[in-house]
Write a structure and sequence with these properties.
GO cellular component, one term: nucleus
Largest sheet: 5 strands, antiparallel
Organism: Boletus edulis BED1
CATH topology of the largest domain: Transferase(Phosphotransferase), domain 1
CATH superfamily of the largest domain: Transferase(Phosphotransferase) domain 1
Shape: globular
CATH class of the largest domain: Mainly Alpha
Number of domains: 2
Protein name: Kinase-like domain-containing protein
GO molecular function: ATP binding; protein serine/threonine kinase activity
Keywords: Kinase, Transferase
Order of helices and strands: HHHEEEHHEEEHEEEEHEHHHEH
Length: 363
């Protein structure tokens, strides 16, 4: 598909984009307006300006064909539309709507992506459109302080514990399926495809730190998730590969396994890969993470134990440690000096204003 897109002119839509373009009017009637690129009347903006197509808002192709951004005409809010096929993922919409139900949506421990609406198009009951908030990867922008990373871990553990308490195994809760709400981090928003740029792609998107505006983290993509009856205390599932290919119990085996134990591995491995191996200053997480990713799934802690052990770790961290900077392992000397200097300026200001070292979003 990407090879096809690479051969197209900038003004030509690839097949993934054509699918959305052909439904532009029907989506508009549902109350969701796609960007100008996907209007049947679209005329490329660079044709009548001096800007190169790469520098324009409508020169940006979709990154994932089944997901597109849209403006909700009711209130002007930018949302995400996801196209799913019930025949491929029969439980995705039901599980997503379950966690978005009135009884669960307002609970702070719920970190499942909210679903605003689900509808069908073309009279095809197999193809559904899920409407969700516009989110961005959980590690973008980068973490400034240890306290910010600690709050991220807390929310992820809390969220997975919440899912497990409601007898839902995510089964693919690896790093690419963890997102954050950028609403307050990016007060002027950003382009939904070129996320490092502002909305019209005329400059970099401005953001503040997580200490200033703490985000909420969310799990997305319930395509292979399963919900179990409370009476089934020990469900087993035939291995199914998610995005993380390192799951020990799936290597050379089709034996049914505990999906909740696999979830514990996924989230532990995400922290290992994105933090412990890539950052300095987070070594205190190693013992817990090692226990979460051990080869024997029966020996891994349950999420209740993970949360309890993490709370004990968090309480032992000093204010100085929590306000210290998270350093990339590959950071060169120039970046080290520049980033440390700017970090200390912010740190002094935060301490003076009494801003907590562990930021937490409003309930």
């Amino acid at each position: 598909m990407w090879e096809t897109a690479a051969r197209l002119l900038p003004e030509e839509l690839d097949p993934r984009e054509v699918w959305w373009r052909d439904r532009y009017q029907r989506l508009a009637k549902q109350g969701y307006l796609l960007r100008p690129r996907y209007s049947p009347q679209w005329v490329p903006s660079w044709k009548s300006s001096n800007r190169h197509w790469k520098d324009t808002e409508d020169g940006k192709r979709l990154e994932y064909g089944q997901v597109i951004d849209a403006t909700r005409t009711l209130d002007g809010k930018v949302v995400t539309l996801k196209r799913i096929k019930r025949s491929d993922h029969p439980y995705e919409a039901d599980i997503a709507l379950y966690f978005s139900s009135q009884a669960l949506a307002s609970q702070p421990a719920n970190h499942c992506v909210p679903v605003y609406a689900v509808f069908t198009l073309d009279g095809d009951d197999n193809t559904m459109i899920m409407v969700m908030p516009l989110l961005r990867p959980y590690d973008d922008p980068g973490f400034d302080t240890v306290g910010e990373a600690v709050e991220c871990f807390r929310q992820l553990f809390e969220g997975l514990q919440f899912m497990h308490k409601h007898r839902v195994a995510h089964r693919d809760c690896m790093n690419k399926n963890i997102m954050l709400d950028p609403t307050h981090l990016y007060p002027e928003s950003y382009h939904p495809v070129a996320t490092h740029l502002n909305k019209d792609c005329a400059g970099h998107a401005k953001h503040v730190t997580r200490t200033q505006q703490p985000p909420k983290y969310y799990f997305i993509d319930f395509g292979i998730s399963r919900r179990y009856d409370p009476s089934d205390s020990s469900p087993k599932e035939i291995p199914i590969w998610g995005g993380d290919k390192e799951v020990p119990e799936f290597q050379n085996s089709n034996e049914p396994r505990d999906p909740f134990a696999t979830d514990v591995f996924y989230i532990g491995n995400a922290i290992k890969m994105d933090f412990i191996l890539e950052k300095r200053g987070l070594e205190f997480m190693k013992p817990l993470v090692i226990s979460m990713i051990q080869a024997d799934p029966d020996k891994r802690p349950k999420m209740d134990e993970v949360v309890t052990r993490f709370d004990e770790i968090r309480l032992r961290l000093s204010q100085r440690k929590l306000r210290s900077r998270v350093v990339d392992v590959n950071e060169d000397l120039f970046d080290l000096v520049v980033r440390t200097t700017s970090h200390w300026k912010r740190r002094i200001g935060f301490v003076a204003r009494g801003i907590p070292a562990i930021p937490s979003p409003p309930s």
